[in-house]
Amino acid sequence: MFYDLSQAILEWAEGTVWAGYLSPLRVFQYITFRSAGAAITALLLSLWLGPRVIDWLKRLKFGQHYADRAEAAGGLTSRVLSKKGTPTMGGILIVVVIDLTALLWARWNALVLLTLLSMVVLAALGFYDDYVKITKQSGRGTASHVKLWVQSALALFIGVYLWWLPDTRDLVSDIMVPFYKYPVLQDVFVVGLLLTMATIVGSSNAVNLTDGLDGLAIGCTLVVGMVFVIMTYVAGNAVAARYLQIPHVPGAGELTVFCSALVGAGLGFLWFNCHPAQMFMGDTGSLALGGVLGIIAVLIHQPLVLVIAGGVFVAEAGSVMAQTLYFRYTRRRTGTGRRLFLMAPLHHHFEKKGWYESQVVTRFYILGVLCGVVALVNLKLR
Questions:
Q1: What's the average pLDDT block by block, 10 residues per block, for the chain (382 residues)?
Q2: Phi-psi region of 215 (alpha: psi -120 to 50; beta: other; left: phi over 0)
Q3: CA separation for the pair 236, 255 (Å, rounded)
Q4: Cβ(269)–Cβ(50) under 8 Å?
């Protein structure tokens, strides 16, 4: 909105005495300026709205008044504070701030609007899941298959929509892999569609599984968000994309503004979510943020780079799948199910080993930064 407004003012002032005075408005043409503005706006909005959202959630009694799965399982000798009573659904703050900020600072195009609308859909799904958990006070929300069907339907729509448009068809039909400059497969719509769906659905659920400790999910999301600030800018810049020999996606530069808003909103939320958390993002935030990361990876034609940048999310989701498969396998073979980890997802395994919550979170941050660096190295080593 700011871009369109500034350009309208400049056009009106052209040829008048006001043209010289209003010429500084040309700065709104630069994605870097608008990205910085989006990050600052989102951060300030989050810090201002945060206490109000916390009070609002408390008045509605939208809090976690049940023991989480880790506490219910027992054995967390390092956990001093219980998480009972902490307001959840804090993801509303993140989603609202990102949407408002992106609409203000970004130039609206199909990629931006698709990302914003998808985030709202996933946030609504997460909100319903959180609401069911709160009303039942059992920690069990919407059935897993229901969430999976909604996520898959959204991912299918995105994949088909991108393939249907001639300008974005290559994002689905051509397969790019990290550290290689050319598509490894071309004109493979079915394979590309399956990869698109797997990226979006997998990322949404992986962030959801990571959201189990104060500040863990949002901190790791911030790292990936900062990686995507760089990658979206490069993908949207024809000169930079040609130099680095990566796919150029017209309009992707505006996703830099969105990613900057995500980083700003995430930092603001982390202010209230760091240990001991004043509120949780809940599925409202984790499903939406995870899905958005997957969507952005698809829109810049780098879906598999997310596996590297989001290495912590991959490890968390992988630990759950490995735990489940190994338990079923050993139960079928021996009659008694065995576990690979003390508890899954992976962060609870380290809690069970006696690590303090803040230790787990900080060390996972370090691993997340290392994964982000490797993902950025992919831009040059091709």
A1: 85 80 86 96 97 93 66 56 79 96 94 96 94 76 86 97 94 93 92 97 96 94 97 95 93 96 97 93 95 97 96 96 93 88 92 92 97 94 78
A2: left
A3: 8
A4: yes
Q: Residue 298's pLDDT is what? A: 97
Tokens of 231: 């990658």
Task: Give SS3 for 63.
Answer: strand
Cis amide prior to 345 (ω within 30 degrees): yes
Alpha helix (H) ranges present in the chain?
A: 2-13, 19-22, 31-59, 69-73, 91-105, 110-136, 144-164, 170-173, 189-210, 216-236, 238-244, 254-273, 282-299, 305-309, 311-334, 346-352, 357-377
Give CA separation, 175 vs 50, 89, 131, 184, 300, in Å.
41, 36, 39, 6, 12
Distance (Å, rounded) from C-alpha 83 to C-alpha 279?
10
Query: Given this model, what pLDDT does residue 223 score?
Result: 97
Please report, for residues 65, 70, 78, 151, 244, the alpha-carbon distance to residue 351 in angstroms, rounded to integers and kept in the order given: 21, 9, 7, 30, 42
**Which residues 6+ apart lie within 8 Å of 107 measured at CB?**
3, 4, 254, 257
Instruction: Match 């900057």 to its residue by tokens.
Output: 260
How far apart CA 14 and CA 22 sit, in angstroms, is: 9
pLDDT at 71: 58
Q: What CA–CA distance (Å, rounded) separates 146 from 157?
A: 17
